[in-house]
Amino acid sequence: MVDNATEAGAAAEGVKPRSVRVVLMALMIAMLLAMLDNMIIGTAMPTIVGELGGLEHLSWVVTAYTLATAASTPIWGKLGDMYGRKGSFLVSIVIFLIGSALSGMAQDMGQLIGFRAVQGLGAGGLMVGVMAIIGDLIPPRDRGKYQGMMAGVMALAMIGGPLVGGTITDHMGWRWSFYINLPLGAVALAMVTAVLYLPKKKAQGRIDYLGAALLTVAITSTVLVTTWGGTEYAWGSAEIVGLIAVGAVSTAAFLFAETRAAEPVMPLHIFRSRNFALMSVIGFLVGFAMFGAVLYLPLFQQSVQGASATNSGLLLLPMLLSMMAVSLIAGRVTTNSGRYKVFPIAGGALMVAGLYLLAQMDTGTGRLLSGVYMAILGAGLGFLMQITMLVAQNSVEMKDMGVASSTATLFRTLGGSFGVALMGSLFTGRVTDAMTERLGPEAAGAVGSAQLDAASLAKLPEAVREAYQYAVAAGTHSAFLLGAFVAVLGFAAAWFVKEVPLRGSGPAPAADPAGGAPGSAPAAAPQAPVAR
Question: Which positions fall inside the Major facilitator superfamily (MFS) profile domain (predicted)?
């Protein structure tokens, strides 16, 4: 069955449409590539270090990818707006596949880090391309029915990534952790090329090279601060303070440059929409909570509850299944009713409740109870994950769909970086303090410097094991308590969202600077995208 919006677009182009499901399948494969990569590589990293060496540079295998992804995300969005989304999306897939192939052929750690940066450049365009093309192809009102599909891809990546990574590494070698992207990417490339038709665009103006450079410096400085602060360098060290200064100056210079650019890489006028600004804030907080939870929940269950590290992805199942189910329900309700304000409010409340309950876990908390807490958090994330993107895209004009999608994605990515860094710093400090209280400074330093799995913990003396488990529980308490406090801000922000009619649900208001897109075209497929 073809959506009415797609039929309207096809009629405008004079082309007979086919089902959009084939296009969506290709987009979901590309989305899976972007999300699955780091999950698989994390499991393979010990083997990679064993063969290539360079343990001291291990963190850069992930950092190079993350930096390149974050820095290129807004640029891909703008390129799609200026030159057409299909072309930029296909180029991003090709760059990602080239980076994957080169990473699999790396002969030393330096090469691997460089090739991972290439891979990250392509990955920056994958998520943005998926979101922006869906934004072009499907009107906001109809978009809700596909939210469960997106949440399902995310759950599949988080659950299956570690399992697939471990299996591939054990039976095929770590290089296939990168090569596995090639057949999947080739399928997505062929399907998108064959069945996706979007209106051709002629670039107007010049690319904002100065803005792109300043934004790259600002994002790089921010990500490095959150990655290195409290781990590689002390928060008050010259390196971190210097990076903060560089980030602040480059951000200020970027904002000034964007007011002068003919075609700004991130048009500041999109933030005049109250809804868009609020969704950017809420997306940042969702990233903060989600990535922190994904990192510290398995650590707690392995160290305190004695779960196996092999099936670490399955430990998140209650949260991910809840997130997927609630996202599907919220999407269907949005499609049928056109209403959505209740979901950010409900999601914010459940996210606060879930994080607060997780903060109450201790050494006596069983897996069933922690699973219930995780499900509550997952429900909150399910209400928020896709709704934030939906409302953000509905709050801008169609010509800004790419930069709106990339900006929303960027804020979520930066939220994840801040969440992991700040929760990690608090966690590490609390674990060290608790170990010192129980065992003294020398023993605390010897045991607390490593993350011990269930098998390693079983070999420790009982007193040391209990002290470590108590310390990890105390650390997760502090980390999740911080997460709950930050989530309160998202809950408060949700109350200020203005429920503007979704395009595709009837005539849209001509101008609404408080919430909707100024001059938004009504209803179906303003730019007549076609899937056939």
Answer: 23-502
Contact by Cβ (8 Å): 481, 422: no
Alpha helices (H) in 200-273, listed in sequence order: 209-228, 238-260
Indicate the number of domains in the chain: 3
CATH code (residue 86):
1.20.1250.20
Say whether both 271 and 296 belong to one domain. Answer: yes
Last residue of a domain, one of 246, 266, 286: 266
Q: Is the pLDDT reported for residue 55 higher than 70?
A: no
Q: pLDDT digit string (tens) for 456-506?
A: 666 667 777 788 888 888 888 888 999 899 999 999 999 998 888 776 544
Residue 521 banded pLDDT, cuts 50, 70, 90: very low
| Contact yes or no for 74/406 (Cβ under 8 A) | yes
Asked if residue 337 belongs to a domain, the reply is yes
Please name the amino acid found at residue 409.
T
pLDDT of residue 253: 93
Residue 516 lies in a domain: no
* Distance in angstroms (rounded) separating the CA atoms of residues 16 and 6: 10
Beta bridge partners of residue 197, listed in sequence order = 530
**Distance between CA atoms of residues 386 and 143, nearest Å:** 10
Helix or strand holding residue 206 (H, E): none
Q: Note whether residue 513 is domain-resident.
A: no
Q: Based on the number of CB atoms within 10 Å of its own CB, is 317 exposed (0-12), middle (13-18) or buried (19 or more)?
A: middle
Alpha-carbon distance of 356 to 473, in angstroms, equals 14
Q: What is the rounded CA–CA span in Å between residue 377 and residue 291? A: 12
- What's the CA angle centered on 250, arms 246 and 255, to 5 degrees? 155
Mean pLDDT of 193-222: 78
Nearest to 99 by CA among 122, 72, 77: 122
Do 296 and 241 sit in the same domain of this protein? Answer: no
For residue 412, give its domain range: 267-500
